[in-house]
Structures are given as C-alpha cells and as structure tokens.
Amino acid sequence: MAIFERRSKVLGAAAGVVLVSVTLAGQAPASHGKPLPRTAWGDPDLQGIWSIATITPFERPATLAGKPVLTEEEAAELEKQTLKTSNQDRRDGAGTDVDLARAYNDFWWDRGTKVVSTRQTSLVVDPPDGRVPAFTVEGQKRATARAARGYDSWEDRSLWERCITRGLPMIPGPYNNNYQILQTPGYVVILHEMIHDARIIPLDGRPHISPAIRQWFGDSRGRWEGNTLVVDTKHFTDKVSFRGSTEDLHLIERFTRTDASTVRYEFTIDDPKTFTKKWTAAIPMTNTDEQIFEYACHEGNYGMVNLLKGARVLEQSK
Amino acid sequence: MRIRIRGAIVAGGAALALAVLSVAVIPTAGQAPATYKAPRSPFKDGKPDLNGIWQANNSANWDVQGHAARQGPVLELGAAFSIPAGLGVVEGNDIPYQPWAAAKKKENAANWLTLDPEIKCYMPGIPRATYMPYPFQIVQTPTHILMAYEFASASRTIYMNSKDESPADTWMGWSLGRWEGDTLVIDVTSFNDQTWFDRAGNFHSEALHVVERYTPVSRDVLQYEVTIEDPKVFTRPWKMSMPLYRRVENNAQLLEYKCVEFVEELMYGHLRKKK
C-alpha cells in the first residue's frame, strides 16, 4: 500500500502545521489547502452522519494479488460486475434454493454500490497483501470450534442474530451502515444505528476502568494526535469476538477528517493470542444526508424463535 | 446540512430573546428561578449546557403513584428485592384512566411478571427511561441532542427546531426539541403501544403524546416535568415531575446494561435442545 502510506505521511505533516495555525485562526488547513471544519472549542470537527457502505471486499481477493489499488476503469468495471452478481431482484431459477435466498430482495439490502474512494482493493491495508494474518495455533483451535456451532440454543448463534450488538470495530455490513458522530468538550460520541448503541468516548485523559469490568464494547479512551482522533479500547468481555479475537484484544482506531465529505477510519487489531501479527484496515466514511432511525432488534426477534423452533422440529422428524 | 445549521442559528437567536423575556417577565411553573443561571453551551449558541450524566433518585419505576412498601414477587429474594415505598411523582396522585383502561391497568399489575416489557429487556420508551434506576447521558449539540440510556443501551435523538415527521412508530418515540428560555422542551410522538410507565402496569396506547420539560435549577439538578396525553386511554392530560440529579463522581461514565442476554433463557429456554 505504497500510495496509502505516502498519503498518511502527507496528512501527518499537515497535522504538524495545524497545531500552529489553530492558535492563530482556529482553523486547520487540509492537505489540499481548504480549511477543515473545527468545533467552537477548537477540536477538529468530525460531526455528521457517515456511511461505511461499500462493495470493496474486506480482504484482497486472490485474483488481485499484488495489486493494491484499482484504476478508475477497473473500479467502474468491478462496481458493474458486483451489482450484477449481487442483484437479489433477479427471478431466474424460480423454485430453486438460490432463488428462495433472494426473498430478501434488493429493497432490504444497503451494501452500497461503490468501491471505497481510495480504490484500494481490500479494506485490510496492513499487511500489504491485504489479507488478515494467520491465526496463532490457539486462534485456529478456537476458529474450528466456532465453525462447528449449530442450533442447540441461542448461545450458538451470533451476537447480531441475538440482537445484542454488531460490536466493534465498525465494518461494512449488508445494511444499516450509518453512524452519527457528535462532539462536546471532553467527549466524542458515535451512534451506531445498528443496534442503537451510543458509544461515548471520554477524551479527558481519565484512566481506563478496572479490568475487572469487561464489556461488549470494551472501555474506550480517546485523544487527539494532531488532526486525528485516536481511540484505544480494552477490557472486552470474552463473550464478544471480532474475527476470532479474545478478551485481550486491544483495538486502536484512528479518525481523520480528510475533506468535507470524508472521515478516514482506520483500525488496528492487536491480539497476540489470536493473530500472528497486528493488522490494520482502513475505511473511508462518507458523509450522507440520510438520518439515523431507531433500530429495534430484540423487540421483534422472531427470527431467533423460528430458527430454534425449526431446529427442534427437524430433530423430531429425524 | 448548511441550510439546517443556518436555520438553527436564526431560531436560536429568537429563542434567546424569548429566554430573556420569560425569565424577566413571565416565569412559569417548571422554569428556572431567575436566581439560577445555568452555564452556557460550549457551542456558543447562548443555550444552557445540559451535558452530563443524570439519574432520577426515586421509586417511580416501581409505581409512579404513591405506594407503600410491599413484598416482592420472588419469595427467595426476600428483603433484598422487595418494593420500596414512594410518595409518587404524579400531580394530584391521580391518573385519569377511562373506565376500560383502569380495568386493564389492574390486569397489567396482576400479571406484571408476564406483561411488563422491562422484564423482556425491551426499550423502555419515554418517559419511563428517564426514571429507571440507571443513569443516562445527555450529549447536547445545537441541532441534535442525544440521550443515551444505560438500560438496554436504549438511545434517542432529539431533533432541535425541526418539523420532520417519523416514518414509523417507535419504542423510544420521535423527539422534536426546542428551547423555551432555559427549559429544553421536547415533543415526543410516534410511539407504539408496547411500553409502560412503570412496574405497576400503568400504560398507554399508540396515540401517546409526551411533552417533556428539562429545566436546570442548580448546577447538579434538572427539574423534569412531563405531560402525558393519550385520548384513547385517559380522560385528560396528566403530569409527572421530579428532580434529576447529576452523577457528580469524577469518573462517572455509562456502563453497559445489555440485558438481552439476561432474558434469553426466559424467552427462548423452552426452545433449547433437550440433552
């Protein structure tokens, strides 16, 4: 990801200039010269409603090995192809399982239609091959155990199916990809539309809460490094896992407003019990004029009832 | 977006003028006494700063009306989880139910354990979320005010000076806010009929219309006043009021009370695979 690294360095240099200019004008110059917005008390302003919907894959497909960035033409072609293959409004093959799986037609999906603005070929940017590093031996054991889970009880199902949380970090999903950032002095708040989680991040330098308190969202502390909001999150409960991570996960997130309509979101996964090395993904968050609405999930979780009931009926019929 | 912000500033100017008038000339019930002037918002919009972590300290969640202490529903829990007495927070202590609704309230109370949505960890609705025994945090900006509740990670956004309508019924309501002097007034509509007011079976229909008033009366106290209107259930609007206290601990922060996992056995246990 040579291009990416170079860009971050340019941004980093701009951040150095900012510190000086804040005191003079209260506004920070962006890398392209336009002032970036600032709050009334002088922090970089990240506020707004942001979407992370994208068709860019999380990991780089084997077919794009060695190619970190698409050309404009390649990006346009990928968008065209993806829309075609993911089209759930097709009605060919009526009566087959493939067609039955399109019962959620395109009205219900909100995966986005574009690759990310950087045209990177994967959201994973480090390691440079765009792939999540290998599991440790222990991590692999846990992954195998996870894959074997069935339908004996709700505990076998994902936290999302159980309507507990979609968790951290923020990654594009098939729908409800909108997040609202609000700021007050001493806090940055990220409202996740799904499942109405308001993540309140103190910036006042207070220490983390006791490690005896483990949480689904861990415990987050933020700070400004130049124009970048850096958020450290620790103390996850062992009941939550991101791609196999343990309760020892240290999540580092970086938010940088790169222009009026973009916040660059980057997260690093540091969990030596699970991954053989640290790894990082980067997702541009794009400003949207959509609103955040109430996402009631557990309140109408007929899916869980029907899924378990179905499994019990299947057992009876065996 | 830019248009909306400009609108808010203009409206803010008008409200500021109104604030001066109302404090100086016509202080009404529930508004701040002229002697207390809350700190102003860091957004420099002239509004009082309500940011903070707040919590009620009463037994309204057990029963918004006055009630004596009584034994709890689980024998084994004895004195630890019995029901504390309370003076009540309803003005006049009378909830003006229509006759059919009074009967339903009694039925709700008699079947509390099976009917109260709190027991299933459903989002509690407004005003109940305000006086449950958990803190909530106000995150105030000029255009959006977020109220984040510890219970069930429920949250709601209050749109300031907006006339947008909710596209659907909701658990936490659709909140439109405005400033009347130093009082934050929130008009809440578009509820479903699934939430209750307390553990005593007090309820409403989807016609519920709630008007909340948050007034800073000292550095660490908001006076909360709420008017309940529901022509399908009550014969007239009625009011509740109570102070909300700031959580003043230096390290105060909302923790998680993600209660879904506490109710799964209760709700789905009968569907677990038999060993």
What's the arrangement of secondary structure elements?
The complex is a heterodimer of chains A (318) and B (275).
Chain A lengths: L1 H24 L2 E2 L5 E2 L11 E4 L20 H15 L10 H4 L23 E3 L10 H11 L30 E7 L2 E6 L4 E6 L16 E7 L2 E7 L15 E10 L2 E9 L8 E9 L14 H16 L1
Antiparallel strand pairs in A: 1-2, 3-5, 3-12, 4-12, 5-6, 6-7, 8-9, 9-10, 10-11, 11-12
Chain B lengths: L1 H23 L27 E5 L42 H12 L1 H4 L12 H4 L4 E5 L3 E6 L5 E6 L13 E7 L2 E7 L19 E10 L2 E9 L8 E9 L13 H9 L7
Task: Explain briefly what this protein structure is.
Chain A is an alpha+beta fold and 318 residues long. Chain A is built from five helices and twelve strands. Chain A has a domain at 39-53 and 128-302: Calycin beta-barrel core domain (Lipocalin, Beta Barrel).
Distinct helical segment count of chain B: 5
- Major pleated sheet of chain B: 9 strands, mixed, barrel
Summed up, the helix count of chain A is: 5
Segments of chain A where pLDDT lies below 50 for 5+ residues? Answer: 1-30
